[in-house]
Prior knowledge:
Layout: H1 13-17, H2 21-28, E1 33-46, E2 58-66, E3 88-91, E4 95-102, E5 111-112, E6 116-117, E7 145-151, E8 165-171, H3 176-182, E9 185-191, E10 207-217, E11 232-236, E12 248-250, E13 254-262, E14 268-273, E15 278-280, E16 283-285, E17 288-291, E18 295-301, E19 306-312, H4 317-320, E20 323-329, H5 343-348, E21 351-364, H6 375-381, E22 392-401, H7 413-419, E23 426-429, E24 433-440, E25 449-450, E26 479-485, E27 499-505, H8 510-516, E28 519-525, E29 541-551, H9 558-565, H10 576-581, E30 583-584, E31 600-601, E32 604-605, E33 612-615, E34 618-628, E35 634-637, E36 643-645, E37 648-650, E38 652-655, E39 659-667, E40 671-673, E41 680-683
Parallel strand pairs: 1-4, 3-9, 10-13, 12-20, 21-24, 23-28, 29-34, 33-41
Antiparallel strand pairs: 1-2, 4-7, 5-8, 6-7, 8-9, 10-11, 13-18, 14-17, 14-19, 15-16, 19-20, 21-22, 24-26, 25-27, 27-28, 29-30, 31-32, 34-39, 35-38, 36-37, 40-41
Amino acid sequence: MRLHSWTGAWRLLPVLVLLTVPHVKAAQQQPKERHYYIAAVEINWDYSGNDPHRLGPTYKKVVFREYDKDFRQAKTHPSWLGLLGPTLRAVEGETIVVTFRNMATGPHSIHPHGVAYGKQSEGANYFDNTSQKEKEDDVVQPNGQHVYHWEVTSDVSPQPDDPTCLTYTYVSHINVVEDYNAGLIGTLLVCKPGSLDELGQQVGVHHEYVFLFGVFDEAESTYKPGSEADHLKYTINGYAMGSLPDVSVCAYASVSLHLLGMSSEPEIFSVHMNGQVLQQNQHKVASVGLISGSTATASMVALHTGRWLLSSHTIGHVEAGMYGFVDVKKCDSLRAPQRRMTVEQKRHSRVWTYYIAAEEVIWDYAPEMPEHIDGDFKFQYLRQSSTRIGGKYKKAVYTLYTNASFTEKSEPKQKKKELGILGPVIRAQIRDVIKIVFKNLASRPYSIYPHGLTLEKPEEGVNYPAGGNHSHGVQPGETHTYTWRVVDEDEPFEGDPRCLTRLYHSAVDTPRDIASGLIGQILICKSQSLNIRGVQLKADKEQHAMFAVFDENKSWYLEDNIRQFTDRSKVNKADPDFYKSNVMHTCCRTTDLNVNSLTAINGYVYESGPVLGFCNGEIVTWHVSSIGAQDYVQTVTFYGHTFELNGRTEDYLSLYPMSGETISMDMDNIGQSGHTMPFFKINA
């Protein structure tokens, strides 16, 4: 049944004749219809994008494609869309009319999310006690056709604080798992009034891209392959291993990003574009978190030309092939905005110089082991023996020095103890310049890469997978100076905290460098948020907590640790128990021996870090982040305390992998607390 705002309106015609001309015009205004002609068609698909250097097996797929109204000629399908169907768009008050023809060999349908529809336009096959007439939309047989009507009502359209266009999906709903893995998925944008032109394109946007971070399991597809090989594909728009084609934007252009996460199994995605700062829900972000079946709308303005990595930072995703590249090019039609700093801005801007070294240390995950720790837990994870490394590992860490001679360390001992394995906290305000004089005192190449800053290509410090650039890092014994300019595009929004919590890490080989210990936090602050010593204003104290999963099996120093702490001849690296014993895992406090990891906050496990002291009534700014080998959303609680996050009062915090948040807490509950945070004590 189609939804109508004016059902039976023709009966009012005699009355309308008597109305004045303005009233006649108003009555004649009907909801606008946007027509799409969509077919399900079968294709052969190569996840390598026909790259001659990476040719793999070809799979039979079925996909949504747009046609002319007679279904005689397929419309042009941008190559970068890949498996995705055409992007459908409509604004509030409009009706999307989809004429769907099934050109495939099996039954299919189209089921939308994010719009209103009647039962004859649902496109979902399930038992719902409806009549046969109302179920014609559920299953469209081969060579069959059905017309769907979807309404963009005020109830489903974007609200004032929402982005211009909300991102949704449409899918075939005969067998959701099989249909998705076969390739039947597309994007539906529900937009604010006046935001689309007559051709359905977003007004005021130079580039619009849809990126599906999709895991396809060909073994669960409608067209199951005959072999028993691994058919799990980690892709962006159906392209794996950097083969995503033809994604380019102009420098200084506005870019609308519509992000989808999809898998037939639970999956977490942490979407990151190197060297760029994104906007999401009126907040500045360095990455966008997605779960299977979720969507997000973001935007950006790319400033610097170059080839930039687009990927998911969740453990194993890049290694599995879930990455592509975005080319930022100089276009004659767009130029850099002309900005002149005011006298006041010049007075508050400054250059922050940090002398940071990468150096190798023996790190103790449990320097102060509590007496009440469970003995079995200690035996399983911290005991050193001829076949177990124990709780001490050779690692690489970032260390702050006083000057370019790198002879005198700068971090106070107590502060360094609280930060644990973290490198020094880097801070800067908008229109400041960060200079990192980086000396590699370790035995292999390393670098420093910051999240949350708009970077010039030479300052990135990242080694890309095949198909991208190659920045080999700083060699042992060498020194390199990074210059990062904190530009207006990096500035926190009004609804953001004064200082945003971001990460920095070595990125010569990101997973292995992080596993080896090279991590830290960087704070990107609003103007006039720091004093001349870099201390945050309007906060009594500042604390840092990083939930870091260190998979020591991926560390560059695994062989060194086996050699130093075990009898190498007795160690079997293929032993699952040996592998588990080397995963120092950020989580909550637990004595569950089925958890194959250790609790580590700032590199300390199981309450072994320092107890932090506060005075009753102090306002503390916490910078909390998650980094390392996580494949889940980290939940953080401060038992007995609430906190303020983006203007809301909360009692728990959710962190996607490789992300950070800034929260403000009133320390008003006297006593000792902790559990999923560093333990702290509040004194009267």
